Fold:
Amino acid sequence: MFDSVDQVLEELGKQSYIADKKIATVVFLAHKLEKPVLIEGPAGVGKTELAKVVSAATGRPLIRLQCYEGLDEAKALYEWEYSKQLLYTQILKEKFTETMSGAGSIGEAAERVGKEDSVFFSYNFIVPRPLLNAITSDEPSLLLIDEVDKSDPEFEAFLLEVLSDFQVTVPELGTIKAKDRPLVFLTSNNARELSDALKRRCLHLYIDYPTEDLEQRILKTKVPDAADKLVEDLVAMMQRLRELDLKKTPSISETLDWARALLALNATDLDEDVVSQTFNVILKYEGDVRKAQAELDKLLQKKAGEAAAKAPAAAPAASTTKKGALH
Structure:
C-alpha cells in the first residue's frame, strides 16, 4: 500500500489533501503496524477528510460509523431481522408441527424445536452494521469511527475488543474474527475526555489550525480560481480572527466556504463592505460576528492612522476608492 512516508505525502497530494510530514508519518505507521489512529483537534481541520482521502488513495472501501449519544452495540454491530424470522416461522409451520409430533410432553417438544435454533439464529437473519461490515469484509477496508467522543463511555468500552483483536462476539454465533484487518481511523472533537484504555490502543494524531503558509496552499489547491491576492488577504484575516475569543473559532472548512462565497460574489479583494456582508459565512454566532466586526474596525483605524502618518504634508485630497480590509 504505502512504502514510505514520502509516498504517503505524494498519494494524499493526488487526492488534493495537503498534509505535513507528521500526518504522513502517522498514516504510514498505521499501515505498517496495523494500529488504529485516533485523530483529535478542533472541528473543521480535516480529520474526517483525512480518513476519506486515505480510503481513496489505497482503494479501500470506506465504512463509516457516525457516533452520537445513546449509540449502542445494536446500531454499531448488528441487529436481528425479527420480521424475517417470523415470516420463516410461518412458512415452516408445518415442518414444526411434524417435528413436535409424538412428543410426550411440552418439555420434549420444546427441546426438539430448540435443536433447530441454528436455522433462525444464523447470518441469514442478521442485519450487519458498520463494525460487523468492516470485520467480515471480503476485501481490506477502512473503518472510520467518526466523533467517538460523542458516544457514551459504555460504548467506548465495547470498542476495546474491536480495536484490540479486530473481532466481535455475537452470543448466538460465537466470536467473529476479521478476515483482513481494516485500517481504523477514529476522530474526536474533544467533547469529552477519552479513556486511557482507548488511547493506548491507538496511534495519536492532533491536527491543529493550519499555519498561514499551509492554509494558503490548501486554499490554492481547493479553490484554484481564487486570485493570489485574495487568497493572501483572506488567510491573513482568518489568522487574525482565530486570535479572538470566539465561541466557535473558524477553521479551514470555513476558509474554503468563505473563498467560494467571495468568488460567487465576484469579489477580487477583501474590502470593508464585502467582509462585513460575508462574516456570517465563517462565523456561526451573532456575538462572534460583533467581535469580528469590532476587530475589523480597529484594523481599519490602525491602517488609516499609519497611512496618514506616512502621507506628505501637502498631500492631495483622499481618494474615495475602496481600500482592501487589510490595506
Remarks:
- Residues 212-310 form one domain.
- The chain is about 50% helix and 10% strand.
- The beta strands are 37-40, 62-66, 78-80, 126-128, 142-146, 167-170, 174-177, 183-188, 203-206.
- The chain has three domains: 5-70+137-206, 78-125, 212-310.
